[in-house]
Amino acid sequence: MLPAPDSLRHTALGDVVGREDRHNTHAWLGLPYAAPPVGPLRWRAPRPAPAWPGVWQALTCGAPAMQLGGMTLDLPPVQWGRPVGAEDCLTLNIYAPRMTPEQAPAAGLPVMFWIHGGANTAGSASTYTTLRNLAGQDNVIVVSANYRLGILGWFSLEELARDDDSAADRSGNFGTLDLIAALQWVRQHIGAFGGDADNVTIFGESAGGLNVYTLLASPLAKGLFQRAIAQSPLTTSHTLAQARHYHDDALPGHALSSRELLCAWLQQAGRAANRDAAKALLAAMPASEIAAFARGLPPEALLAPVKPGALSFYDAPCVLEDGHVLPAMPLARVFEDRRRYHAVPIIIGTNRDEYKLFMANDPAHVHRLFGRIPLMRNRRRYLREAAQLSDLWQQKGALQPANAMLASGHDDVWVYRFDWDEQARVPLIRPDLLLGAAHVLELAFVFRDMAGEFDPFRCFSAANLPGRIEVSEAMAGYWIQFARNGQPDAGPGGALPLWNRWSRDARGQRLMVFDTRADGGTRMAPQPAVAHDDATAPAAQLAPALPQWP
Q: Contact 526/511 with Cβ under 8 angstroms?
C-alpha cells in the first residue's frame, strides 16, 4: 500500500502520511499514542509517545495487544488459545473524509473514538476497519485504539511500586489509563487531521461499552470527551483484594489474582515445586526481587497459566476499584451520584438476544454435527435460557445504569434495544433462532457495513439486504446525529422517529427499538421497570454458561 501524498499532515510529534481508503477516505494507521509499555514500563501508567524524525508512514495497523488468539482476531482455529500479539501495542488509527488540510472546515469535524470489545482480554482495533464507512459517508473523524489487555492491562501487585511511582503507576488500571492516554493524544493532535477536539464522542461495544463506563467514572478523563455511547455494556469491577489476594485468604482473591499468578509463574520457572512452596518463597523474597522476576518474564510466560474459555476469552480481575483511576466502589454504584461521574449525554443499549453468541459456542447447549454444523440440543430450553440471560444483561448493563443516572439528576440519557433477526431460516440449524439479535451483530449496522465486511456469523445475504439497509440507516443516523449535536433527535434531517429520553415512566415510550418494518420497524416502545434491581450482584450470576465473561 502506497502513501497518499495529499494525506500529509503536520503534528506536534512530527509529520505523518497515510493512505487512500474506501469511500473516498484517508486512513492513518498504527500511530503510536504512548511509549511502548515494555521492560521497566510493563505494569506502569503509559508515558507520552516520543517525537519521530522525518515522515511517519502510517500505512498499516499496529500489532494487537498481547492475548490468547481467537475469533476476535480472525485467526484460524489452530492458533486459538495460543499467545499472539505484542506488548508494544499502544497505537491508534484515524479515518477521515479525503481532503487536504486546506479543505478541512475551520471548526473541525466531529470526532468518534471507538473502543473495541473482547472481554478486556482479547480483540484489536485493526478488526474494525469498516469504521471508515462513517468517515466517508457521514463526514466525521473516527479514531480506534489498541490498549493493554487481561493481566497485562489490569494487574495490581504492591511489590511492583517504586519510590518515584505515581498513583497512576500503582493503580493497576493500565488498560484504562491507555484509553485515557489515547484520548489525550486525540485532544492534542486531532486538529491536524481535521477533527474538533472539543466534540469527541466515545463509543464502544461489549468490553468496549464497559470501558465507556470506566471513562465516565474516571476523574482523570475529565474534559477528554463530550458524549458517550455504550453498546452491550456491563458494569463489572473488582476490589483490590480480589486483584491481589490468594484465593483462600480471609478476603479471598481471584483465581488469577497477582498472588496466584506469581505462584504459577514460580512453579513454571522451576523455582517452586507446588503452590505451598511458591507461597513460602514469596513470603521470603524481597519486594525488588519479586518485581524483577515478574517484569523479567516474557509475555508468553505471563499467559501460560491462563485457561481460555469460549472465544479464547478468560476471566481475570479487570477494572479495579483503586481509588485513583476509578472510585473505590463497585462501578455500578458510581452512577448513583452525579458528582462521581462525567454526566455527558449518553446512549446506552443492548441486543435482544445478547447471550445467544455465548450459548451457541457452548457444547452444553449446542452440538456440532461432523464437528462443524451447530444444532441446538434442546431448542425450547435454549430459547428460554437465552431470553432470561439476555434480559438480565439488558437490566444490569443498560437499564440499571440508566435508572441510576436519571435518579442522580442526569437527564440526557437515551436507551435502545437492537432486535434484527432476519437470518435465513435454514432447516435444523435455524440461525434466526440460534443467533437472532445476538451479541456483536449490531456493529455492521452501526458502521454502515452493508457489504458484509464484518459478518462474523456469515448471516448477511442479498435476501436480507433491504432490511439491513433500513436498520443501518436508523442506527448510524442516530449515532451521527448524536455525535454532531449531543442528542439523537429524529436523526439527520429529521427523517427518523423522534427518540425520546429515558424516563421514570415504565409505561411511557422510553425505549428505542431497532428492527425492520416487517417486525414493527424502528420505533419507540415502553420498557417495563427493572425486575432484578441488584446492581451489586456478582457478574457470575450473569454468566453461568460462560463464567469467564467479561
A: yes
Where does the pLDDT of residue 46 fall: very low under 50, low under 70, confident under 90, or very high at 90 and above? very high
Torsion angle, CA of 474/476/477/483, rounded to 10 degrees? 140
- pLDDT, tens digit (0-9, with 9 covering 90-100), for 402-461: 999 999 999 999 999 999 999 999 988 999 999 999 999 999 999 999 988 888 888 999
In angstroms, the CA 214 to CA 325 distance is: 9
| C-alpha cell belonging to residue 432 | 434466526
Which amino acid does the sequence have at 274? N
Question: Hey, is 482 helix, strand or coil?
Answer: helix
Q: What is the pLDDT of residues 195-242, one digit of tens each?
A: 999 999 999 999 999 999 999 999 999 999 999 999 999 999 999 999
The ranges assigned to domains in the chain are 5-101+109-198, 255-301, 349-542
- Describe the chain by its helix, strand, coil percentages, rounded to 5: 35, 20, 45
With 0-12 / 13-18 / 19 or more C-beta atoms within 10 angstroms meaning exposed / middle / buried, residue 501 is middle
Q: Show the cell assigned to 83.
A: 499467545
Q: What is the pLDDT of residue 531?
A: 55
| Grid cell digits, residue 471 | 436498520
Count of residues making up the chain? 550
| 209 phi/psi in degrees, rounded to 5 | -70, -40
Quick check: 257 and 318 in contact, CB under 8 A? no
Which of 300, 296, 304, 302 has the alpha carbon at shortest distance from 38?
Answer: 296
Q: Which tops the pLDDT comparison, 259 or 537?
A: 259
Query: Distance (Å, rounded) from C-alpha 237 to C-alpha 256?
Result: 14
Domain 5-101+109-198 has CATH 3.40.50.1820: yes
